[in-house]
Structures are given as structure tokens and as C-alpha cells.
Amino acid sequence: MSRPVPRLALTALLALASAAAAACPGREITHAAGVTCVPGTPKRVVVLDIGPLDTALALGVKPVGAVSKFADSDDFVSYLNGRTGGIQNVGVITQPSLERILALKPDLILSSKVRHGEIYAQLSRIAPTVLSESVGATWRENLLLWGDALGKKAQAQTLLNRFRVRARTVGQKFPRASISVVRFLPGQTRIMHRASFIGTVLDEAGLSRPASQRVNDFAAMVSQEAIPQMDASHLFYTTWGDPKATTQSEMMGSPLWKNLAAVKAGRAFAVDDDFWMTGTGILAANRVLDDLEKYLK
């Protein structure tokens, strides 16, 4: 039989619980790196990837600092042009500058464990830091997590709900279309599968994929011999950075590419890598739907 807790001990326990609750003057957010106390309404937000930048802007929050895609550029991503004026560059995604971040005196930092888990302790000493587990295919969960951290969880859920309705509507317009997605990078060609950002957007729309792409992983890294696997009624391809530095000309110069049904029918389309691949946010997802409505005829 359990013994009753003495009155003085109970009082002490309640006092400790009350003190623990009072220790967080804002809100506690559970995330991939633990539990973090964030301000009720963050005012000076720094984002360390394109996904949280997309999310913050979609929710009406302009960060004070963000990272760029390339080390030699102060630009962020093209599809967010017009929204990012006044945001300070704090380095590149792969190497944010702790000094620049500290100088901005942020009250919240957003990123992911897969990107910046190794520097979480340093970031947390600068400001409350909330990390998603991963990026890409998890963009919907990330939207809700980062939205919660920004004090806009309900708004984030509304954006996601509206996207899902729109995605289904777009997909229903093109029930006979099948979609192939290819990405050209330096020294590498990828056929994108379902467990990727673009894969989840196409799944939300209910659009068909070729059998070789209905795979629950990220992508297949392929050589020219795999070009026939790229075929579908519509083929969309993107290029990371300078096309001359990627495999694009090599692949598209192949007779196998030229023999694809989508290519011969004039249904192979170059689309923007920034929002088909890099963006991984709700604004990027809606831009993909814009392209699908434009090209699926």
C-alpha cells in the first residue's frame, strides 16, 4: 500500500512544479533535439534553411537572418524574390556563421537536425532553437512544427489544409497524366521517388508516377542506361546551379533521351529547381501546383 505524501513534502513538490512551469515565460516546444522554451511571439527570427524561410514568410513573419543556397551569393532562392528584402545573410546552408547570427540578437532560430544538429548546442546558447528531424519529404510536419514555434500553429494548419484541397483539385483535372521527375546535378542524375519533397506534392495531388518511380525512398542515382526509366506522359526536369556544371547536356544529348515518348511528344519541361527541389515549404509546394496546371494539358 502506498503511503500518503506528508503535507510539507507535498507542498515542496507543488512549489517545485510551479517553479518549473514559471521557468518558461513563453511556450515549450518539443522538437527533434529536445524541448525548448520559445517566446510567445518571436520578433527576431533566424532561419538556417530554405524550408523554414519559406514557412516563416508564408506565415507573415520576415526573418532578420537567413542562409543562402550558394557560398558565393547573397541571394536566397528565386521564387521568394520580392519577399526577402531586408533579411540579412548569415552564411550558406552548409556553414552558417555563428558570429553573424549572434550579431542579429535573435529570439528564435529554426532549422533541422539533419542540417545543423551538430551545432545545436552552440545555436541554443545564442537563442532558443527548434529543429525538425529532417527536410524534404517531412515538409508538412515541419510546417506545423515551425509554425508552432512562431506562434502560428493554427495558421500553419490552415495553409496545409488549403494546399491539400487545391492539390486534389489540380490532380483531378488530369486523371490520365503520369509524371516523371528528373534532377541534374554536378556529376549526378537523379530520378526522384516518392519519399522526396516533390514526391509528396505529386502524391497529395493523386497524380500517377511510372512504376519505377513509385518507390518509397528518396531517389535513384542513375547513368544513361537508365534513361528509359524516366519516361511518362509528362517529364519534368530541374537543374542545380549552372547547367554546364551538371549532367544535363550529357543526358539530354543521349539518343535514349531523344527517344523518350514524353520528349518526342514535346512534353518534357524544364522547371525551376528552387521550388521543385530546394524550397521544401508550403509556398514552394503551391508553385509546383502552378506549374502542373500550366503544363499538364
UniProtKB/TrEMBL annotation:
Residues 44-297 form the Fe/B12 periplasmic-binding domain. It comes from the Bacteria. Keywords: Lipoprotein, Signal, Transport. It holds the Pfam family Peripla_BP_2. InterPro entries: ABC_transptr_periplasmic_BD, Bact_iron-sidero_bind. Gene3D superfamilies: Nitrogenase molybdenum iron protein domain. Belongs to the bacterial solute-binding protein 8 family. This is Siderophore-binding lipoprotein YfiY. It comes from Deinococcus carri.
